[in-house]
Structures are given as C-alpha cells and as structure tokens.
TrEMBL record:
Annotated catalysed reactions: [(1->4)-beta-D-glucosyl]n+m + reduced acceptor + O2 = 4-dehydro-beta-D-glucosyl-[(1->4)-beta-D-glucosyl]n-1 + [(1->4)-beta-D-glucosyl]m + acceptor + H2O
Signal peptide start-end: 1-18
GO biological process: cellulose catabolic process
Entry GO MF terms: cellulase activity; cellulose binding
Keywords from the named record: Carbohydrate metabolism, Cellulose degradation, Copper, Disulfide bond, Polysaccharide degradation, Secreted, Signal
Organism: Ascobolus immersus RN42
Recorded coiled-coil stretches: none
Lineage: Eukaryota, Fungi, Dikarya, Ascomycota, Pezizomycotina
Descriptive protein name: AA9 family lytic polysaccharide monooxygenase
Amino acid sequence: MKLSFAASILALAATVSAHTRVCNVFINGQDQGDGQDKYIRSPPTNNPVKDINSQAIRCNVNDRQVPQWVNARAGDEITFEWFHNYRGDSIIELSHKGPVQVWISADNGNSWTKIASEGLNNGQWAVEKLVQNRGKHSARIPSSLRAGDYLFRAEIIALHEGDVAYQNNPIRGAQFYPSCTQVRITQGGNNSPPGNTRFPGAYNYQDQGIVFNLYSKPPPTSYTAPGGSVWSG
C-alpha cells in the first residue's frame, strides 16, 4: 500500500513538472526581460487548459490587460521563451509532443489570425524542437501588418493524452497551453489581419489535430494542426 501511494505521488509530481508557460520574449534576438504579469497576461499556475469551449482557451485563465507593452515593427522576429515556472528551470516534458502555433488579435482577443504553425516535420514534433532550442520558438511578424496594439497568442498543444476527446473523458484529452503577450507595432504596413477566428470556437472535438493518437502503430508521419491555415500578411 505504501509503495502504491508513493508511486502515485511520484507520478503526480512528474505530471505537474511537465507543465509550462511563456516567461519572456525576444524581438530580433533582443531579450525583453521577464514578462510575467508585466507584458504577458500570465496565468497563476502553469496548468493546461483542456476545455476548448471555455473562455480560458483564448489567453488562459486570468486574462486581463497588464501594464507594459513590447515594442516591435512589422517584419521583426518575435521569439517566445517557455519554462516550467521561471527562466532556467525545466521547459516541458518531452512526452508532451504536439504543435506550436502563434496567433494575433487587433481587438483585445475578440478575433484572431494565425501567423505561425509548426507540427510534425521529418519525424520531429514542434515541442521536441522547442525543447532542443532551450524553450524558444519564433514567428515572423507579417511585414505588411498595420501599426497598432496587438495580442500575440503563443500556444502549445500537448497530445500525449489526445487519443480521446476531453468531452468524452475529462481525465484525458489534449492539453492546451495558450499565452498572450501585449505587443505594440510601432512601424507597419497597410494590412489589418483578417481576424476571422474566435476563441472559443476555433477548435472542436472533431478536429483530427485535437483528437490524435501519438502512439498509433505505425507511428504517425503527418499531422494537421487545428485552426486553419496561416495568414501570410
């Protein structure tokens, strides 16, 4: 009995330590400093969102405006840095394979446009690449994007329990890690993002990119991330 209890505690600890969140960003390689609760709408914990019909699927829980903005220009590279809780600790458990995506909103999260998406490429998942890059993944801000204030929504979708939909088994289901960063585009072009996607609403439990078996035999060789195509700008 004691062994069983100890094993349960260890399993719980391993599961919790696998969680993650964005701690800071870089613009063209320049570190913008710790962004938690400053320019990132940080959740109080690093726990995932599992209910795609909840408001938390947009910017995680605790979605509210924070005091600072990161300045960038259209065409710049924005890099998000993920960690378990703070810079330098663990990033995310490698078992949490899945895609990494970036969305933008020009109206404080009421509508969204996807600008970057990585899934499974030559046998490597985007999450594996992120860990290999020490928690970093990047997106190019569309060069024609109009100047203004935007939310940048970086997202990891962990598929290790995604063989069944959360609505059918709340103990399992894909895990979503959305994070919203406030970015001010100081110089831009003439295009506004289409903004034809809503959260909640962008995803449903029939999406093959959400209900997905990582452990199929033979292993999967292709993957289509949910939420439609990337806007080139």
